[in-house]
Amino acid sequence: MGSNLMILLHVDGTWDTHGSFTSKYNTVIEVLEKTSFQSFLDLLKSVIRIDWSQNIVRLSYIVAGSPPPIVVSDDSELLFYLKLKSFQNDTSHLPLCVEFVLDSTVHPQSNDATTHNDHNFHNEAYVNSVCNANLQSNTYSTPQRSGSGILADILLHRYVDATKKPYPPNDLREDMIREYGVSMSYRKALLVKQKALTKLYGSDEDSYQLLPSMCYMLEQKNPDKVFPNVEHGHCTEHIVRNIRGKFKGPKEDLAWKFRKSCRAATEFEREEYLQMLDEQDSRIRSYLWDIGESKWSRCKSGPFRYSIMTSNAAESMNNVSNSAREYPVSKLVDFIRERMQKWFHERHERALSTTTILTQNLESELITLQRDAFKMKLLRLALVCHVMISSHRTTDGNH
User: What is the pTM of this model?
Assistant: First the structure.
């Protein structure tokens, strides 16, 4: 058995050209979430005291203040309305407007219904209570408002979280059939997606026009003082590709020798691999010198990198923003700003909670090494010479 819904009725009024309904009075009814259109009409007859034999009733509502109204004329349309109504437990949400037209003013056989009302409806249906609620549908030739705009309003929440890819059209089609019994083509589902994104973030042109103001505010709120001593380097993999393309020698040999040289912890070790590169092409060293030693060499990176090779930040950001790149550019920029702000806040909080000299990860690694050291035995061989005996088996099988 379905739950009950409280529906606010605006009774006996008319729509104006701005999408406002002026009624003579209002009332509230309680209906089942799943009820038939005929049962709903019977309930209206018991609540609204008029001469139903002389009047035709038209039920309609408006979504998100966007005219024209949506007409309720059969079971599926009523079910769709009640489903929308159930999403928000508020009597004043989505009121149902009830219009009455004298039976003598309606001519079912006539194709010209434009004299009935000054407001244009896409799919108006008039319900004759005397004729067992037979429907006479008159479709106007005025510009149509398809349901894509209404569905876009309903699905706006699906396009807010940039950590997820925008709601795909095929998923939208499946969900609409399953939840509302509404069937649509892929083209219409794609149109719903585009309209939802436009409602939230504007058109592509509007999105790009927001960039200067966004960048200005970022510059005002985040001047160049967050990391005044920050260092930067070049991606060694890109340098490898340049070396393989510009200089002579087997490409694989050039690649591994350069990787070894850039990861060398001392200048002496680095020089060994640079000499190997000199043997293949003497121009490589001058090319690397022009780039700058601190940009690619670990041993020349200075104190700011603590001799630890960092990850490629650009590639990491590409992976993080993979879903956000499918949104308008203003949303992408705001997503990057939001994500960076979150990361800096988390790391700042972690730094404030750190009581050791080293970071938490390195401190944990140091403690592990210290525990392993406790298992070792110290043997004194001479006054200035000691040998450490480990209880761990080495790679060659010895203890």
Answer: 0.42
Q: Give CA–CA dist 68/195, Å, rounded.
A: 17
Q: Given 3-state DSSP classes, what are the helix, strand and coil percentages for the chain, each rounded to the nearest 5? A: 50, 15, 35
Q: Using CA atoms, how far apart are residues 35 and 85, in angstroms rounded to an integer?
A: 13
The H or E element that residue 279 is part of is helix 267-280
Confidence tier at 343 by pLDDT (50, 70, 90): confident
Give the pLDDT of residue 314. 66
67: how many CB neighbours lie within 10 A of its CB?
17
* One domain, residues 171 and 266: no
In whole angstroms, what is the distance from residue 19 CA to residue 345 CA?
47
Look at residue 99 and tell me if it is in a domain.
yes
Q: Within its chain, how far is the Cα of 50 from the centroid?
A: 51
The answer to whether residue 389 is domain-embedded is no
What is the reported pLDDT for 234?
A: 79
Same domain? For 30 and 136 the reply is yes
What is the residue type of 2? G
Q: CA 108, CA 254: separation in Å to the nearest integer?
A: 86
- 255: number of Cβ within 10 Å: 16
State the total domains in the chain. Answer: 3
Q: Rounded CA gap, 77 and 70, in Å? A: 9
114 and 51 belong to one structural domain: yes
Mean pLDDT value across residues 261-285: 90
Examine the domain organization and report whether 66 and 169 are in the same domain. Answer: no
Q: Could you report the per-residue pLDDT of 62-77, keeping only the tens digit for each?
A: 876 666 788 888 888 8
302-330: per-residue pLDDT in tens? 765 544 445 566 677 788 888 888 888 88
Q: Extract the tokens encoding 17.
A: 């050209």
Residue 346 lies in a domain: no
Q: Are 37 and 24 in contact (CB under 8 A)?
A: no
Identify whether the C-beta of residue 19 lies closer than 8 Å to the C-beta of residue 68: yes
- Domain ranges, residue 263: 236-301
